[in-house]
């Protein structure tokens, strides 16, 4: 690894936050030297690992997400990417980023915590579903069968991470003025919102009170993208390379390396939920 | 006179409710105030209340129809009717709360036996069937053996169904305020209290004083005892929660005792819903007045409605993760909850159905009770 690349790697989050750009200036390094390409980007490596994992039987994969909190700058591009990818309506969010202010002036800093679904190996949400509409699939991802879900919202209360939200059937353009509907106004603008998304590869059009309206909804690690060899939207759009994704059963994978470090933690482990999302602290 | 006022009240509340029902069916959950973090609101609290009244009434009916307590002779049949009406209204409340009401049958075709909701659904379904059978057998004088068998099965089911909502909440380890084994037991006592209060309302307002002396006496004494038990449960529940100093429990308890819900708790649940009825019902001179006793029954039901609300809502206003509620803004992504106009309107409609349903019972079932009483 070149000197510049290792420095960038070390100061990645700060550089993106624009907090230590003077430091980089002092070091007189170029942000895009020609030989920077010698370092394999994490996304390239994870995509290759993903494709390798897809060659195995589904039951032998163990999808895991790792989020490096030291690198997260709280830009929420993962939140936005997830909303765009899954066409999430108002009130439905799969991956918010919580912001916590630490310390008192002048010694203040911010802590960011992206929160996807934790795809627990012992999920409380599936236990409480009265109609088995939510369950762990063969790959260990907690999914929802939208056609079974009765919308009782028991799972919303059971998830200790608040990772589920309810779809009220609203659109962002709702109650906005209507104009010439062939070019502008609500009736034209919400065409995009009502178009089918790709969740679970089902291509559901939002229409009236048809599912997923009236259902609980949650992050599914972008299963539809994984199936096609693509990383989850939140991972591929993370500007600080703070989110990692892969098969933890592959000992050579990036996520396997990361979760075996002593600074990898999981939230609320005392509940015995066995989450599949790790944080590097 | 009482009945005329009640009919008018029932019609008014039902008419208000019709707008709520229309809004719910036309716009789904868009105009409801519950969200993704406070996901259960007024309708769930009402489901617990009416379900509790139903099983409580059945248990009280068993004292007449199964154990044949002389002082409660003639009370069983109207109590069964009250159980049926309240059960129907409770199920309607939870049905309207579901995202997909039309799929309720999946609870029977795809049951997940680890779910507390399933215990509720199956418990109330079996209970409802047994209540209908008991009502039919109680009207048919030749079915006394069948009635006894149904009442025994119904009594067991009623106790199970009384505790089931408490268990459903109590098994949720993510909501520490609910996660107490006291909760299912408390729900049984709340149900018994509701049943006694409902019967006092019925008899207080619609039965002549001459027929009320003995039932009033036993129902009033029982209600006072049950209210005292409930107060003790509240003390146990809150003191246990506070002494553990677990923030997820302390926060809702503080909100109830001295926060945003303090007026509801101290004013309605404790003073109006428990202490005042205890004082009035223990006064011999006052306890003989039908309207006053009926009013006390109403106050107890109101207090218990608030109790259910305060069990359901404040617990959900605790953040799962620090600052999660401010991480992303949108419909239902906050911790505030105040029932919307639609929710209140639906609640009004449910109340209207109960009032009118009970009046129909008073007009068509009570005469039968009187007749059978005379025959006996």
Describe the structure.
The complex is a heterodimer of chains A (281) and B (376). With 281 residues, chain A is of the alpha+beta class. Chain A has two domains: 1-38, no CATH class; 40-280, Alpha-Beta Plaits, CATH 3.30.70.20. Chain A has helices at residues 3-10, 12-17, 21-27, 42-54, 77-86, 124-128, 154-158, 186-194, 223-227, 233-236, 254-259; strands spanning 63-68, 97-102, 109-114, 134-136, 142-144, 164-166, 216-218, 243-247, 264-265, 277-280. In chain A, the strands form four sheets. Chain A has a four-stranded mixed beta sheet with strand order 8-1-10-9. The two termini of chain A are 24 Å apart. In chain B, helix 8 runs antiparallel to helix 10 and helix 9 crosses helix 10. Mean pLDDT of chain B is 92; it is low at 372-376. Chains A and B meet through strand 2, helix 6, helix 7 and strand 6 of A and helix 5 of B.
Describe how the helices and strands are arranged.
The complex is a heterodimer of chains A (281) and B (376).
Chain A: H1 3-10, H2 12-17, H3 21-27, H4 42-54, E1 63-68, H5 77-86, E2 97-102, E3 109-114, H6 124-128, E4 134-136, E5 142-144, H7 154-158, E6 164-166, H8 186-194, E7 216-218, H9 223-227, H10 233-236, E8 243-247, H11 254-259, E9 264-265, E10 277-280
Parallel strand pairs in A: 1-10
Antiparallel strand pairs in A: 1-8, 2-3, 4-5, 6-7, 9-10
Chain B: H1 2-27, H2 42-65, H3 76-97, H4 106-109, H5 116-139, H6 144-170, H7 182-206, H8 213-244, H9 247-258, H10 262-281, H11 284-287, H12 290-316, H13 341-364, H14 366-375
In short:
The complex is a heterodimer of chains A (281) and B (376). Chain A is α+β, with helices and mostly antiparallel strands and 281 residues long.
